[in-house]
Amino acid sequence: MLAPLLLFAASANAPYQCAGKPKPERRLEVEPAEALYDLAQKFKAEGNTGAQGETLRYIVDKFPGSRFAVAATQELGELPAK
Questions:
Q1: Which pLDDT does position 13 carry in this prediction?
Q2: Which one of 5, 16, 47, 74 has the lowest number of neighbouring Cβ atoms within 10 Å?
Q3: Cβ atoms of 40 and 52 closer than 8 Å
Q4: 20 to each of 17, 23, 25, how far by Cα in Å?
Q5: Cβ neighbourhood burial of 76 (10 Å; 0-12, 13-18, 19+)
Q6: Residue stretches of the chain with pLDDT short of 50
Q7: Do residues 66 and 37 lie in contact, with contact meaning Cβ atoms separated by under 8 Å?
Q8: What is the pLDDT of residue 80?
């Protein structure tokens, strides 16, 4: 009789977790393609188009299903030809 009571007491203090996805502003992790895209934007701001292009091509090659691959492909088309 004591065991069910202890089990109930232990579960009553357990933290509740939401099964849904966290809001984007509350995420704790950044997906790799997003981090690389941010890096490419940093290179762009610095005027380093070579590093920007390499980073964007890496995103397209390694993360083709990512939403950042679409943006990377578009930006690659806007870069000056080597």
A1: 57
A2: 16
A3: yes
A4: 9, 9, 14
A5: middle
A6: none
A7: no
A8: 83
